[in-house]
Design a protein that fits this description.
Helix content is 36%, strand content 12%. By secondary structure, the protein is α/β, with parallel strands linked by helices. Helix 9 (266-283) runs parallel beside helix 10 (304-318). It is elongated and about 85 Å long.
Length: 338
């Protein structure tokens, strides 16, 4: 999972304390063109205030130079986000916080995009609100959306405290969204089908295909107070090397994606593992033959033949009582040095 924020948000920015727990998966898209933190990974837009700013202009959305500059490096941003991952865009009432999502929805092919959005406030200018809703006009690429009604929250706060200041309101909303984070992140992690939207009554994601008449509005569900998944980033070349759904119904595509990468010392690794299989078979008196691999040059160190031999030995070992199984001492690091 990746959490994407910008350096321009009122709520979701590099100074939000609720993000510290997730620092290994946070990406800050720096729309102003310079790194704003050492705590999180940053993606720098080529925007420059010296050359791109136009005096007297207050443009948002497609007319904003920051969006145009980010779009110019959209493929680089897509590469940083990787493949076959859950990408969660954390945005607030600032139109600019939607820019990474707006750029990525046109380029995305392999990731599942999730959006946590907050409505623009009524006190905002008409132009800002118009551009905000324009950028949310196409949600076809989304797997899920959480839409936080900031106006409704503000009105409720003013009823309870007419003297409430804007900084106090922002602090309340920030804490409220931070409190919700484990709940909606767990929902995204557990999600198996989409599209879904987050129902604040049930405090969970609801598949749209179920229809509005089947949305649960019970409020007695206990909220999550912590995440249930490891906060780590997945590393791979074309996604996690595993069986799954591929962009084409072609065995060739699957074969190319899951093909182990060749390495210069692959032959050495192959021989080392083959010798260990032979030693394991001898120690347990398992009938086993392993002809030397005739392949020459760089290889991955393993192949279907190697995997087949390992699977055979595994099945033979299962027939031997565990207390009688013999495992020869084996240190891969020492073998490589040798």
């Amino acid at each position: 999972m990746r959490l994407v924020i910008t350096d321009t948000g009122f709520i979701w920015n590099q100074n939000n304390p609720f993000l510290e727990k997730y620092k290994d998966i946070v990406l800050v898209v720096c729309l102003e063109g310079k790194a704003v933190t050492d705590q999180y990974e940053c993606f720098l837009s080529p925007y420059s205030a010296k050359t791109d700013i136009v005096m007297g202009m207050d443009k948002y959305g497609e007319e904003d130079r920051r969006l145009q500059r980010l779009a110019s490096v959209g493929k680089e941003l897509s590469s940083v986000l990787g493949y076959h991952d859950k990408i969660v865009f954390l945005t607030d009432n600032q139109p600019s916080t939607l820019y990474p999502f707006y750029v990525m929805k046109e380029l995305n092919r392999y990731n599942r995009l999730h959006l946590a959005a907050m409505s623009p406030w009524k006190l905002e200018s008409g132009g800002r609100r118009k551009e905000y809703y324009h950028m949310l006009s196409d949600l076809s690429q989304l797997y899920s959306i959480l839409y936080y009604d900031g106006d409704e929250v503000l009105e409720g706060l003013k009823k309870d405290n007419a003297a409430l200041t804007m900084p106090e309101a922002l602090e309340y909303i920030s804490n409220d969204l931070g409190r919700l984070m484990p709940c909606f992140l767990n929902g995204i992690y557990d999600m198996r089908s989409g599209p879904c939207f987050f129902d604040f009554g049930a405090m969970k994601y609801i598949p749209l295909k179920n229809g509005f008449d089947k949305i649960g509005i019970a409020k007695d569900h206990a909220m999550d107070d912590d995440v249930r998944f490891p906060i780590v980033r997945e590393y791979s070349t074309m996604g996690m090397v595993r069986q799954g759904v591929y962009p084409e119904d072609s065995g060739h595509v699957k074969e190319e994606i899951e093909r182990p990468a060749a390495r210069l010392d692959g032959k050495k690794v192959c021989n080392m593992l083959r010798e260990q299989r032979i030693r394991l078979a001898e120690a347990n008196r398992i009938p086993f033959e392993s002809p030397e691999c005739p392949a020459m040059g760089p290889c991955a160190g393993t192949c279907e033949k190697c995997d087949g031999e390992a699977e055979y030995l595994r099945k033979q070992l299962e027939r031997i009582p565990e207390e009688k199984r013999m495992y020869p001492q084996f240190d891969p690091r020492e073998e490589v040095r040798a």
